[in-house]
Structures are given as structure tokens and as C-alpha cells.
Design goal:
Elements: E1 3-7, E2 10-12, E3 18-25, E4 33-39, E5 46-51, E6 57-59, E7 67-72, E8 77-82, E9 91-98, E10 113-114, E11 118-122
Parallel strand pairs: 2-11
Antiparallel strand pairs: 1-3, 3-8, 4-5, 4-9, 5-6, 7-8, 9-10, 9-11
């Protein structure tokens, strides 16, 4: 059974940065479609960013220019570098993985595996 464990969340001031990590085990990382999603209080789960096995990356409009997704296949880890954080970025952030490819990254119902989430709070 694949397990995804997120880390790196916390409290940050507006304009600050955080880097989230998601470690996958056992070693079933490649090939896989990976994404980050978030859920703010009282809101639906929304897709943030994703990466296909070929390395192509995509971002939600609100993440373009501020967030960067990357992977370290040797460590079976996916990252989300977040900069210029704003209070509206406050949410629980989840990583998701699926061994299938070719589906739209934003189709969150397609992912078989999810982490437990890490809280990101942006506040002064």
C-alpha cells in the first residue's frame, strides 16, 4: 500500500515562503502522476499544481508565478515551493498520486493515493 506523508506546513506572514514536501513509500514513485491540492476552511478541495511522469508541470491560475512543483525521484519526494504567500493561501495542503497517466491533473477524483495533509496558515 502506497503511503504519502506531507511535511513543511506552518505559520508564515503574508509575503513569506514555505516549502512543502511529500514523501512516497514504498518505492512506487515512477511512473506516477502527482499533484498538490488544498482545502481552505469551508471550501471545497481545489487543485494547486501537478506533474506528469514526463516532467511536465502545470499550475492553477492562482499559483502561477508564485508556486513551483518539483520532484526528487531518487528520494521519492515531491515538493511545492510557495512564495509571496497571502492569507487566502491558508488551507490544508495535500499531495496526491496515481499510477495512471494522461488524465487531467485537476481531476482530483482520479487520484488513488492521498497524504494526510499539512496545515499552512498565512497570517500576520
Amino acid at each position: 500500500e502506497v503511503q504519502l506523508v506531507e511535511s513543511g506546513g506552518g505559520l508564515v506572514q503574508p509575503g513569506g515562503s514555505l516549502k512543502l514536501s511529500c514523501a512516497a513509500s514504498p518505492l512506487t514513485f515512477v511512473p506516477a502522476t502527482m499533484s498538490w491540492a488544498r482545502q481552505a476552511p469551508g471550501k471545497e478541495l481545489e487543485w494547486v499544481s501537478g506533474i506528469y511522469p514526463d516532467g511536465s508541470t502545470y499550475y492553477a491560475d492562482f499559483a502561477v508565478g508564485r508556486f513551483t512543483i518539483s520532484t526528487n525521484n531518487a528520494e521519492n519526494t515531491i515538493y511545492l515551493q510557495m512564495t509571496i504567500l497571502q492569507p487566502e493561501d491558508t488551507a490544508v495542503y495535500y499531495c496526491a498520486m496515481d499510477p495512471n497517466v494522461g488524465f487531467p491533473l485537476g481531476s482530483l477524483d482520479k487520484y488513488d493515493y492521498w497524504g494526510q495533509g499539512t496545515q499552512v496558515t498565512v497570517s500576520s
